[in-house]
Amino acid sequence: MKDIKKFKGTGVAIVTPFKNDSSIDFAALGRIVNHTIDGGVNYIVVMGTTGESATLTKDEKKAVLSYVVEVTDNRVPLVTGIGGNSTQEVINCIRHANLTGVDGILSVAPYYNKPNQRGLFQHFKVIATCSPVPVLLYNVPSRTCSNISSETCLELANECENIIGIKEASGDIAQIMRIIKDKPDNFMVISGDDMMTLPIISCGGSGVISVLANAFPAATSELVTNAIKSNFKAAREIQLRYLEMIELLFADGNPAGVKAMLGIMNLCQNYLRLPLVPVNRTIYTRIQKAVDEVKE
Question: Is 167 labeled as catalytic in the residue annotation?
């Protein structure tokens, strides 16, 4: 039986803070990890899109993961992103990674080379076979141009014991509901979009891997807990209260929006690595006003 309980509820896709010289700000990373755990998140995801993993070197990825393992200190489960558009390279990364203290891998659908569904199935089947920890699929076609169909997802869920769920960020609620309807009991459907958290949980989803939770972990966790308990009135009130904030997360690119929030909250500096840049002045002003209005 797959162990999926530890990934139910609120996961946070943690940012990677930088200093003004573009080096990693480990002190700020520690502050954010503690801020999210203190705010009640159920698990942490490092090295995802929000963590700007595409701009980190292999050595930096190892250093970030090692540091987060140390700071987390087994207080919550930890997931690390290991994905790519070369199956063999993903396998090599998994085999050479130090996964001590890591509870799962989040693996994004291959990007750029646009595999068909047979290729996607084989890609993830091989990854699941070689991974020493459980695997979460990550479907985000707006970034990868590669959609994991509901049929392929369900085939993987039924055939691969080590694949325990999917982070769904397709924005296609019909596709997501098809997965929820026909999935095995020991497979999780997790929202990969803060705006879709409540709709997906209401349909039977297991939670969210959130960007918002970097800045507002307590509110995000409360929303998810209420939704999972079918207390939709309370959950809806939180979702609507943070509606503009969620929109601003992505108004000028992710993680630019959440890094602006974290900078305003003095949790990290507002630096990104090129080709990403901070939000424009208009969006920053709107974020500042929104933070003031919903400050916990």
Answer: yes
